[in-house]
Structures are given as C-alpha cells and as structure tokens.
Amino acid sequence: MKYSCDMIRDLLSLYYDNVCSADSRAAVEEHLEECSQCCGELKKLGDHTYTDSLRQEQSVLIEAYRKGTRKKALFVLSVIFAIPVLTCFIVNIAVGHTLDWFFIVLASLAVLGSLVLVPLGADSKRFMWTFLSFTAALIFLLFICCVYSGGNWFPVAAVSVIFGLSVTFLPFAAKQIPIKGSLERHKGLLVMLTDTALLALLLLICVERESMSMAFSIMGYCIVLPWVLFLTIRYLKSNGLIKAGICCAFTGVFVSLADCVTDLIVNGELTCTNGFWTADLAVWGYDNSANVMMIILLSGVVPGVLLTVCGIIRERKFKNKNK
User: Fold this and answer.
1) Which residues lie below 8 Å from residue 246, measured CB to CB, with a gap of 6+?
2) Are 285 and 215 in contact (CB under 8 A)?
C-alpha cells in the first residue's frame, strides 16, 4: 500500500465530511480500495447510533428537568394562591359567622388561577385548557356576584361573556380540540355555527317577545356578511385574488344596503330616501348619507372587480403553464 493506515485514518473524517483537498481525496480512495480495515472505519463514521442515543438521552434529561421545574413552580404558586383563600375564609367566618363574600374572592382567584396555574400545569393543548378553564371560572364569578347581589342578570351576562370569548378565542382553541372523522377538517364551520347559535341565544334572552321577529330578521341580515366571507375564503376553490375580490365586492354592496334593509325590516316598507342610488357626488349638503353609501359601494366593488379580474388572469396563466 502506498499510504499508511495511520495517515489515511487521520484524513477519514475530513473525507467523510467532504472538506479535504482533491489530492487527499484521491489518496484516501486509492487506499480504501486495498484496505478493508480503513473501509470499516469509514463505515463507523456513518453510523449515528451512538450520537442519536446521546441526543435522545439529552432530550429526555432536559424534558425531565423541565417537568420537575414546572412542578416546583406549580407547587409554589398553588401555595401562594392558597394563602389569600385561607385568610379570607378565616376572616369571613370570624367577622360574619358565615361564608358570603368569601366565594367572590374564591371565584376571583379561580379566574386568575386559570390564567396562571392551568397553562403551567397542562402538558399539552395549553391554550384550549386555559380558554375552557378561564371561561368556566369567569362564569362562576358572575354567578356568585349575581347571587350575592340578589340580581337576575346572570343569564344575560353569562351568554354575553361566552359569546364574546367564543368570537375572540374559540377559533384558536378549536385547533387543539380533538375531533375525529370528517369534522376535523371543518372546525372553522363548527366555530361559525357555535357563534351563530350563541348570538341567537343572546337575542332570545335579551329581546322582548314582541320585538323578537324584527330582532331575528336584523340578525339574519347582519350574519350574512361573516358567513359569506367565511364560506368564500374557506371553501371556494380558487386563488387568493379571486377570493379577495369577491369578499371586497360583496362587503361594499352589503354595507351600502344595510340602512335600507334595516329600514325595510323595522318599518315594513322602504321609507329611506337616501340610498346610494340617489347619490350625487357633485353635491354635498347637510345630509350626505347617500353619497357616503355610494363611496362605500365603489370602495368595495371597484377593487373587488379588479382583484377578481387579476385572479382570473393569473389562474389562466397557471393553467396554460401546466399544460
């Protein structure tokens, strides 16, 4: 052999990482054709079993340390939360000889705990558990306050709070909610149905029976816009420009007709004379609502049409390119 095994083994790591010079590479390859022991050493360099085992052990140790640290922090925070609970319990018993405002303090601390202790204690799906626990604790606090004050406003407050939290946070929490089957791909649809049902329930609780029909008619018109936007964005099989164009155009038409449709629902006939069709952008006086509605209509329809046309052209170019 032209080169010694010791010299070649010094070059094997550089050869394996492809960072050696061309002459060194040629020397290593020439030697490997004649030496089976050096070939075995080269194969060992490609065996990552040991390093993978070390990495796995490292990740296990880090995870165990993280869990241990989290448990200690959870214990300390639990003790901190328990101190005011115990203090208020003793004071309430000593002063009032009964438990009344203690439950308000307990519910308030439960709301705080849902934002501090639950994320720290949950191993997975933290946002979902935090959202659910915070909602439950807040509803419990409202219930205690309603009972303590002797009021009857709890149903309205509870449904309003749940509806507001659902609209704001349920789309994010729904990602972590385990749903099996075909419904897993339609979590957004389930969120929209939930929000619509909560809004209907809120109207049932808040609106008087005589005005129920009118309230639900107005709600039906108002709910059309978010539903059309959602269905267009989520289920329309087209590119983003076409979807954006449809959403812009529909929003412009919807908003510009809102006053007239509401007037028709409330009065049973169209008494509004300031629709966008009566606009005169050259004349601006005391009542400019018609001109404003026209500007809203144009602001939605014009860019909507342009975006849709651009999307159609882009789609055709893409199809022709694929062909």
Assistant:
1) 232, 236, 304, 308
2) no
What are the residues whose beta carbons fall under 8 Å from the beta carbon of 78, sequence distance 6 or more?
A: 117
CA dist., res. 58 & res. 38, Å (int): 31
Asked whether residue 100 carries a pLDDT value surpassing 80, the answer given is no
pLDDT of 164 reads 93
- Cβ of 225: how many Cβ atoms within 10 Å? 15
Which tokens sit at 30?
């020439």
The span from the CA of 157 to the CA of 87, in Å, is 29
Contact 77, 117 (CB under 8 A): yes
Give the Cα-Cα-Cα angle 316, 317, 319 (nearest 5 degrees).
65
**DSSP-assigned states of every residue in 288-316:** -HHHHHHHHHHHHHHHHHHHHHHHHHHHH
What pLDDT shows up at residue 54?
Answer: 57
DSSP 97: S
CA angle, 64 then 67 then 69, to 5°? 105
| b/e 235-268 (16+ beta carbons within 10 angstroms → b) | eeeeeebbbbbbbbbbbbbbebbbbbbbbbbeee
pLDDT in tens, 282-318: 777 777 888 888 899 999 999 999 999 999 998 888 8
Spatial separation of the C-alpha atoms in residues 215 and 212, rounded to whole Å: 5
Residue keyed to tokens 């007709």: 257
Give 123's DSSP letter: S
